[in-house]
Specification:
This protein is of the alpha+beta class. The protein contains 15 helices and 8 strands. It starts with 20 loop residues before the first helix and ends with a strand.
Length: 457
């Protein structure tokens, strides 16, 4: 089953200057893109966190093989659990729960790095010496993990919470920490002539200038990363816009045309002439049907019919050329011809017949009348290319198009659902057309000679 997400709070999303929140709210591709990247990033961040914590958990007993290190192993386990909790509450936009869990993460990390292990033996060292181990560098792991959430607000929150938590820890150690005056006296005796060196080697010194430097550097790095993530968010929005445009194209063109349009700047500008299979589909008697029903019922019926017909066209790699009121025109061999154009077009026609039967059966079950569907198929030379000025239209022009349209109209006097030309039949295996009936001597306007038509009742 496909995974579903709650829609994000678009009022809090950083948008490009030319995109409004209303535009984003109406764009399901942007919604899905932002939520998908956020979720994927959170999952990746949790996995990376667990790997990093596992490495640290292995490293701790190697550096200090003693039983009291189990205290830090427990803290690593708690940090892993907080990461899982972040994944559970994470969402696109502002989230109080997510910020709360992030604050808990930073506070827990600060507690683990600064405050002494209560189970360790008192070795008689000042509390301030904890800062000599340069444990602050572990906060960069959390900052790096935050980048995987693709949220610039998360990065700034990590920077601000870390700075605040670290400052508070320094204040608490300065106020409540254990100090040993005799160690300061010994340091003064040794380095009293050099105040800078004394400050570096005084075990009771908190080295406020270095603590301040750590915070400033961390805030600068978090700010730079936040700017990078913000630019990446705009890239996601741009990508989502391209996906939307591609989806809009796919409503009018088949995937092969969409690919041609998306991969080349002017793929359809060149005027070409080659053989194409052309299909015309129509609902029989639709004019009288529409005259007796409400506009809503008429449009609803057309939408259902067009939908199932275009499914058949796209499923066989054809191009939906245009909707024609209660019918449509489709081509096989545009924008570029393929060796199996005729076969795919014929299979598409057979699929249209099956889908029309199922559609009519569903209509009858709903108490509605069944509608006759007629199809014409011809194969021959056409001219393809763009026409128009500022507004371009991809056109397929030629007598082949006219013949296909008239074959569709011929189904009514012949009393059949499908009429295909002999030019199509001659390019198909005999076993695939053995259920068709040959009707010779048919006059088609636009042709000098009569033609044989193959019909499906």
């Amino acid at each position: 089953m496909a995974e579903t997400f709650d829609l994000p709070n678009f009022d809090s999303i950083d948008l490009p200057d030319n995109v409004s929140a209303d535009d984003i709210a109406a764009n399901r591709f942007t919604q899905a893109a932002l939520e998908r990247h956020k979720r994927e990033g959170l999952v990746l961040a949790v996995r990376a966190r667990w790997v990093a914590l596992a490495i640290v958990a292995i490293m701790i007993p190697i550096l200090n093989p003693s039983w009291d290190m189990l205290y830090y192993e427990f803290l690593m386990f708690c940090l892993a659990g907080v990461g899982w909790l972040q994944q559970r509450v994470g969402r696109v936009g502002r989230s109080g729960a997510e910020l709360g869990v992030l604050a808990l993460d930073i506070i827990l990390m600060t507690f683990a790095l600064v405050f002494p292990n209560p189970f360790a033996k008192d070795v008689g060292i000042p509390t301030a010496m904890i800062y000599q181990f340069e444990n602050f560098q572990y906060f960069f792991i959390i900052l790096a993990l935050g980048t995987l959430s693709y949220s610039w607000r998360t990065i700034l929150a990590v920077g601000n919470w870390t700075a605040a938590s670290w400052l508070v820890s320094v204040g608490l150690v300065w106020w409540f920490g254990t100090t040993y005056d005799e160690l300061t006296a010994a340091a003064e005796e040794a380095f009293g002539h050099a105040p800078i060196i004394l400050d570096l080697f005084d075990p009771n010194s908190l080295e406020f200038d270095l603590r301040f430097q750590q915070i400033v550097v961390f805030l600068i790095v978090s700010g730079i990363l936040a700017l990078s993530i913000r630019r990446f968010n705009r890239f996601i929005l741009g990508t989502a816009s391209l996906e939307r445009e591609r989806e809009n194209l796919s409503r009018y063109f088949s995937p092969n045309v969409v690919d041609a349009l998306s991969q080349n700047d002017e793929p359809l500008k060149e005027i070409r002439s080659h053989d194409v299979a052309v299909i015309f589909v129509d609902i029989q008697g639709f004019t009288s049907f529409a005259a007796e029903r409400s506009p809503e019922a008429v449009i609803g019926t057309l939408r259902e019919f067009h939908e199932i017909m275009e499914q058949a066209v796209f499923a066989h790699g054809g191009t939906l050329d245009k909707f024609l009121g209660d019918g449509l025109m489709a081509t096989f061999g545009t924008p570029l011809p393929a060796p199996d154009d005729v076969r795919r077009a014929y299979h598409c026609v057979r699929r249209m017949v099956v889908l029309a039967e199922k559609w009519n059966a569903a209509r009858v079950d709903r108490g509605q009348v069944a509608l006759g569907v007629s199809v014409g198929l011809h194969y021959g030379p056409v001219v393809v290319g763009d026409i128009g000025g500022a507004r371009l239209e991809y056109a397929v022009i030629g007598n082949t198009v006219n013949v296909a349209s008239r074959l569709e109209a011929l189904t009514r006097p012949l009393g059949c659902r499908v009429a295909i030309s002999e030019d199509v039949a001659n390019r198909l295996p005999e076993e695939e057309i053995d259920d068709l009936q040959r009707v010779s001597g048919q006059t088609i306007r636009g042709l000098d000679e009569t033609m044989t038509v193959l019909t499906l009742a």
